[in-house]
Amino acid sequence: MTASAGRAAGLFLGVDGGGTGCRARVEDAEGNVLGVGIAGPAATRFGVEASWNAIRTAFEGALREAGLDAADTAKVRAGVGVAGLTRMGAREGLAAFAHPFASMVFDTDGMIACLGAHAGQDGAIVIVGTGSCGIGRVAGRELKIGGYGFPISDEGSGADLGLRAIQIALRAHDGRRDPSALTREIMARFHDDPIEAVAWMDKATATEYATFAPSVLRHADQGDAVAREVVQVAAEQINELVRTLFSNGVPRLSLIGGLASALEAWLAPDVRRRISPPLGDAVTGALALAGRPPPA
Question: pTM to 2 decimals?
């Protein structure tokens, strides 16, 4: 598909400004990809100006690859999802930057992931990664369940798995619980010294807690009783998010995130039956936010 053909059909830009990287795509109204661009993290926790610089780097790369000149760029309608957009002043700060497009609409990275998963239509997602959250849209009404941040929320997430596993490992070290292969492995990472675990805890982030999740899941698959307990509790938390979203009327739901496939096998049968695969990625959702019609 040439850029000139794309210009005749209408032009749209989608940007997924995440916490680990930023991706942009220029497409026409029929979904033909004209150009892509990438950049570093765009989360607003790095500062609104740094977020905008990443977004701009990504979309400039996509525009170059698409071969669009200034006149073509002025016809582009853009949709941008940004991690941390709900931080105080972030939306207003980003909207204040000058851009070369016909329009630019901002929303959260979670909402564009939801739009992408359901081809721009109503639906919901449950994100299961380092954190967890339920996000949905029904008849113009947006839903957000959980995701208030670790450790007070993000139930069933990788960070939550790590926290629960460490808590049980410490109890097993004290003799309050039977030890297992998992608890021994965890305590070995702290040289069997609870004081070392406490020192680690004082500085540990959600991401660092989540590094224990692969060990928990591996031991659970091998039948470790403690690991199975931890994973089953996490699965029940995800069950709750899914059921709550369906009770709010969402017509379709997808599970996404780094731990989604691993945890799906542990979910209740009624929940697994109602989960649908995502139809597109977050950039697809950003394109829908921009106003691009769903490709036929």
Answer: 0.87
